[in-house]
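Please describe the entry underneath.
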Amino acid sequence: MRQVLRPVYKCRTDHIMDTRQLSPQTYKAILGEAGRFHPDLALRFGMLAKISESEADYIHKSAELIRFMQQYDDAAIDAVFLDNPLSPPAFRDALGHIANQLKTLEP
């Protein structure tokens, strides 16, 4: 079985952002869209807030995560979900929808 690689980020402990600090537009575009497909997918994007310094950084890291997860094989996709995983085509479709929503946030 192929090992699942994940991006590594350093977390600053002097500033921890929370999803409640996101604007309604960003929250809906990323977390709302991810949650529409699967709560475990929304959880992955929600965890990014804790390692983000600002909303702009969160949006940037979300785009990086999407690009990274688009390369996942079937086993890696399965590892994203705690229960009832999305099929690989549905997973890639969800990432595409979230990526399209991200484009609406960019100036």
Notes: Residues 88-103 form the longest helix (16 residues). The chain has five helices and no strands. The mean pLDDT is 87.
